[in-house]
Specification:
about 160 residues; six-stranded mixed sheet
Length: about 160
Amino acid sequence: MNEEHAQAAADIAEVEAANTAFYEALERGDYEELSGSWLPGEDLTVSCVHPGWPVLTGRGEVLRSYALIMANTEYIQFFLTDVNIAMTGDTALVTCTENILSGGPAEEGNALGPLVGQLVVATNVFRRTADGWKLWSHHGSPVLTESDEDEEESPS
């Protein structure tokens, strides 16, 4: 393998690790680590679209949204599938399917609220920095299942 291919493979491995670290921080509710996953400063304005939310722009607004999600989610786990990484220069594009298992606050007598599964397709854009690869943009879109479509088509 020539030097160029070796560097590209190393970059892809670093981007994949940064992507995984982002989801792991969210699973643990580690706000400090999650904040560190995003581009610092406002030189390149970060953006985020959570499924069903409007576009959030700017580091403060994006990080507040994650603080809100963490505060209202007792349990969340991501199983990433279909992970694909494309790169050009100092920018990397990661697409994946987030298979999410989450639980809300505990109901009376239970340790956790009911667990809910959902599928979200996500695009995460990373930029290379002196401190490694940082998120520039996250966009998540729900995947409609056939049962969702059936419900919409049934007469009311």
